[in-house]
Amino acid sequence: MKFEEFNLNDKVLKGINDLGYKRPTDIQFKAIPAILNGEDVLGIAQTGTGKSAAFVIPILHLLQKSRGKKDGGVRCIVMAPTHELVLQLTDVFKQLGKNTKLKFTAVYGGADQDKQIERLKAGTDILIATPGRLFDFVNQGHLKIYNAEILVLDEADHMLDLGFYKDIQDLIKYLPKQRQTLFFSATIDAKIKKLAYSLVRRPIRIQISPKDPVSRNIEHSLSHIKMDDKRFFLERIARAHPESRILAFVRTKVRAERVMKAMERVGLQSVTIHSDKYQDERTKALNLFKNGDVNILVATDVSARGIDIPNVDYVVNYDIPEQAENYVHRVGRTGRGKQKGYAISFCSEEEKELLESIESYVGYSIPLIEFEKDEYLDTLDFSAETHSDWKTLMREAEEQEEEYEKVKKKRKKK
User: Fold this and answer.
1) CA-CA distance, 182 to 357, in Å (whole number)?
2) Which of 101, 147, 244, 321 has its CA 20 to 30 A from that of 349?
């Protein structure tokens, strides 16, 4: 099937053709007709399946086809969990809708409110926002949302993880009851169902669940590495592949900064993204990585979930993820389209239980690469790290151990 068969607006079709889209993906094939028919949709699909375009395309068609109400206000609200995803979705709307007369605005926390308010005053048809900032603007009277025709919740499971449940519920009170609601999530559980069915009316449920949720283009490997030795093995990968882009995932914001400093000590430039960074810092770091100015990006799960980073050659699970499904989200940053990708995991003794959960989730054992004792020690010995500041290194090792113990206790309480 081709996009022309959906009978889309010519200006929307031109945007699709300009981007080189040929045929709809599975989620697009199933979701677009339902959305065009005005149905509420509950879509369950992993990142990388074409999920964004599955709702952006029909929304552009519907809003381009009809005019908004005379008293104005936002016509469509798209909520997403992170600043990066909001900006990414805004780009998708702008690219696909560049030939329409529709206006798109992004609002999110961690950025100048006044500038965002000025853009809202100029008017907008489609608002893409994080729930917290959106709710703030509604309360402050800067936003008219009572005429919103369409509400979209993207990466809803992640929004719940970040504690946005109450913001979403409070915001719904300001929206018209007669609206179209589109709800997209990577996973479906009792919590997600409760939120979804409180928002949608007799939705069409679309679930795209491949037998193997991980791309076939990815080559996986696992090595048992001591917690304090991981930096040497990340250095080894970076030096062995100097032209490759490496996305390293760590457990916490503190560890992200420590890994970056460890790379700096051996003369390797890297950047970090995590929730303690200001938005302009995160955007700058992502652009440096995307443009190839820096080849190592160190990220936490929260900051990198859902965002599209093209041409990642290696995903390194520097820390094994605490939630099994995050393994899929992480490694999905590489091996996209026809590109070959590599996912390398460093597993310490303390993380073996987490590894078992991941292998149970994906349904197979990750191929193990064991280092001979001499090769393991050579990796440490040949590192460019001077080892002269041994007190600093010892202190960092102790702090990392304490930090992991705290995480472990927190996990047991859950």
Assistant:
1) 31
2) 244
